[in-house]
């Protein structure tokens, strides 16, 4: 298998953590790629017209898109420990992950608004609204002890990636002071080799 990814991407980090936890990382070739908003990348567009990272190419040449779908695929072939198979917990975990993924989407849009959009064309109210979505999501998970203290699953992996991305791109946002339970959770998660190894490189 081949994973086209960026070491800075929290979505790709999610997949890498899952692959390590499932014992599949040695079966995956990691192929770094760069996709910059506003810049053409015809070669990567041949893999996916959306130009989104990451993408998993299976051994038979199938292309699997979206970080969650990739994790779901890896979970199926790797023993199924990260996503519950059935019942109420399955839908709770999937819903929690959807919220977390939306938080990451909003954080990424804030990053693009600040760093990519030309000066004078930036929309501060729009950026503030998206940051508030991510921040409010953190507030919700601060009080979700079932997630913070539950079994290691796709929701916990996603939350680790949110907090890691906050450190990576929004180092001065103050999330640790605002959310001490999330801070304790993150410190505990960093003891896992999969989480520690996948921390984004220095900016």
Keywords:
about 200 residues, Glutaredoxin, Glutathione S-transferase Yfyf (Class Pi), Chain A, domain 2, 2 domains, four-stranded mixed β-sheet, 10 helices
Layout: helices, strands, pairs:
Blueprint: E1 2-5, H1 10-21, E2 29-32, H2 42-45, E3 55-57, E4 63-65, H3 67-77, H4 88-115, H5 124-142, H6 145-148, H7 154-169, H8 175-178, H9 180-189, H10 193-197
Parallel strand pairs: 1-2
Antiparallel strand pairs: 1-3, 3-4
Descriptive account of the structure:
With 203 residues, the protein is an alpha+beta fold. It has helices at 10-21, 42-45, 67-77, 88-115, 124-142, 145-148, 154-169, 175-178, 180-189, 193-197; strands spanning 2-5, 29-32, 55-57, 63-65. α4 packs parallel to α7 (154-169). It is built from ten helices and four strands. The chain is globular, with a radius of gyration of 17 Å. It folds into two domains: 2-77, Glutaredoxin (3-Layer(aba) Sandwich); 88-192, Glutathione S-transferase Yfyf (Class Pi), Chain A, domain 2 (Up-down Bundle).
